[in-house]
């Protein structure tokens, strides 16, 4: 059993907690306002009829320290506040997308010299960051999964510089009901960012591969 440490209790963080608990993983969830603000969310998660794992709230540092596998799912402005030392050596899933209307203009993302996951990796130099869950609606994460081998099983993309870290994330994604498409290193994560062909579209592995292969940089659109 794996403990999923979630930093960010918004729509994606909550959905991942639901899916992980149903798959038998334990969850430690956090937000920027403190664990006492998550009492109602934890109570709702505990009442899930299919829940097989245990859940509790903690600080961001506490969730990071407890994690066997961590998730950072916060707005880009909050990335500098993600705890570094408790995540050292750990696999960290980055779910973020760049929305200028929410995040403000970020020059290195505007000129596409980096990606959101690479920004998180720079902030967490001793962690192993893997991009995932940024192109699926939150509501689909705990509801759209199906058993391995299901025809046309929905697929999710991953990108990362560490093969073992990607394998860990792929195993987690499979456990909650999805196939995967490996995009390669973190730098290729742009292929599934907002406004690309695979973004938000339910596709099986073959369809997602076609979509990501056909993606264009914003500057080329």
Write the layout of secondary structure elements.
Layout: E1 3-7, H1 11-22, E2 26-30, H2 39-46, E3 55-57, H3 60-66, E4 69-72, E5 91-94, H4 100-103, H5 107-110, H6 116-123, E6 128-131, E7 155-160, H7 163-175, E8 179-182, H8 205-213
Parallel strand pairs: 1-2, 1-4, 2-3, 4-5, 5-6, 7-8
Antiparallel strand pairs: 6-7
Summary, kept brief:
With 221 residues, the chain is α/β, with parallel strands linked by helices. The protein has helices at residues 11-22, 39-46, 60-66, 100-103, 107-110, 116-123, 163-175, 205-213, and strands at residues 3-7, 26-30, 55-57, 69-72, 91-94, 128-131, 155-160, 179-182.
CATH superfamily: NAD(P)-binding Rossmann-like Domain
Which structural class fits the helix and strand makeup? alpha/beta
Major sheet description: 8 strands, mixed
Q: What sequence of helices (H) and strands (E) makes up the elements? A: EHEHEHEEHHHEEHEH
Question: What general form does the structure show?
Answer: globular
How many domains make up the 3D coordinates? Answer: 1
Query: Using DSSP, what is the number of strands?
Result: 8
